Amino acid sequence: MASAPDVLVSFVREALSRGIPREEIGRELARAGWSAREAALAMDAFATSTLAVPVPRKRVSSSPRDAFLHLLATALLYNSVVATGSVLFVLLDRWLPLPGERAFWQTGLLRWAAAALIVSLPILVLVRRTILRDQAANPIARMTPIYRFLAYFSLLVTVLVMAGDLVCLVIAFLGGDVGPRFLLKSLVVLLLAGGVYLWYSSDVGREEAPRAAGAPPPPAPAWRDRLWQGGLATALVSLAAALFLLGNPIEARLRRIDAQRVADLRTIQSNVEQFHRRTGKLPATLDELGTDPDTFVATLADPVTGTAYGYEPSGERSYRLSATFDRPSVDDGAPEWMRDGFFRHEAGRKVFEITVPERQRR
Length: 362
Fold this sequence. Notes:
The chain is mostly helical. It has helices spanning 6-17, 22-31, 36-44, 64-95, 106-137, 145-174, 180-208, 223-246, 249-279, and strands spanning 46-47, 55-56, 310-313, 318-325, 348-355.
């Protein structure tokens, strides 16, 4: 709840103690330049009583519990909004890809967003229910100082985000770079930031609304509950979309292990070629790579089964490497510079024929 300046509250206390009617105090304050809201706040600090002295009303204060609940709720809200926006951005990237764009980084972003929503949403719902229960038991605690600060801070952040989004949109428009995907992403930012702005501004607006001394704040607008429900539904749909795109976690684990096998084979290939450049011949076995610190390979066996990777020289500059994979390789959109002979493989044992590049003569 907002408070009036201390000098004004002191004046009203003195006037009430002398028996001056509230209406007359209000008129004199208006003549002195005080606004009607400031006068109402000052007089609202004292309850109507038959006692000869003014009776102060209980002022709202922030307890450690209030601070914890509101700070936690605000942090979880921000986290959920950013995660929801990230999923929507990925969906737009997949729906409207740019020519030549490779989105191999999207899987990591989707995993983070899904994890953030899975953790944040249930806690946010529980914290909000706790806050509403506390407010129902003590209505005067509806607008504590910590919540008031967080509300105005959130209004500042969301206004800056929306303004920055519009600035980027205008810059892109002036440069002729506005496309459907850019417009839709700008709209996503405006909707998410605008929803947070409306949520907090509805509370601040009720608190700042002019009213008679001692009168309760106006009721919350009917759309406020629908805003909460719509935001929660959007987050849940985004979570479902992220989980659908990520697929089965067991399948993801098998593909990650296959990727580790490919990385191990790449390391072995690189060190075999280094060995050949230094000695002019291929190692008879992979253990021979450990005789030189420059060609030492830490991992020579499968990370799951412990079976050694296959190696067999087949010529002066050619050799075979082999490993057993759980799943066939898929095109994950990685750039060309990350691809080599190990990029394509089927499930099961795969033998790769490799030739060491000729040594350049000087």
